[in-house]
């Protein structure tokens, strides 16, 4: 976990993500996933830069299979953006920072 991101679990997902008044970027990741490790510092940087607009939380898919299955996550990394408790965008696979920022433009202004 980076300095600007927060970990969530099956138990805390509703509170951390679904009930959050801000848009939330959820990084579904696993410790064995190389691309997950590649994008982790990028997401931490985004979390720090846009902290006033969006929250970035990380969910270990291996340790939290209930939430992972609920949202149909089958490939890692998967980034879901939640607004008002609903998934409004999904990015599958490691993407370069400019692509991620472009995908998030509607939420981070």
TrEMBL record:
Transmembrane segments: none annotated. InterPro entries: Thioredoxin, Thioredoxin-like_sf, Thioredoxin_CS, Thioredoxin_domain. SUPFAM superfamilies: Thioredoxin-like (SSF52833). Pfam families: Thioredoxin. It comes from the Bacteria. Gene3D superfamilies: Glutaredoxin. Residues 1-109 form the Thioredoxin domain. The keyword Electron transport applies. The keyword Electron transport applies. Keywords: Disulfide bond, Electron transport, Redox-active center, Transport. NCBIfam families: thioredoxin (TIGR01068). Belongs to the thioredoxin family. This is Thioredoxin.
């Amino acid at each position: 976990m980076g300095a600007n991101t927060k970990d969530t679990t099956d138990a805390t997902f509703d509170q951390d993500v679904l009930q959050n008044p801000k848009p939330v970027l959820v990084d579904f990741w696993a410790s064995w996933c190389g691309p997950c490790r590649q994008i982790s510092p990028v997401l931490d940087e985004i979390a720090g830069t846009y902290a006033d607009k969006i929250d970035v939380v990380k969910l270990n898919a291996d340790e939290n299979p209930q939430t992972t299955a609920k949202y149909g996550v089958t490939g890692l990394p998967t980034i879901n953006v939640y607004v008002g408790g609903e998934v409004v965008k999904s990015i599958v696979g490691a993407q370069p920072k400019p692509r991620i920022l472009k995908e998030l433009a509607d939420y981070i202004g």
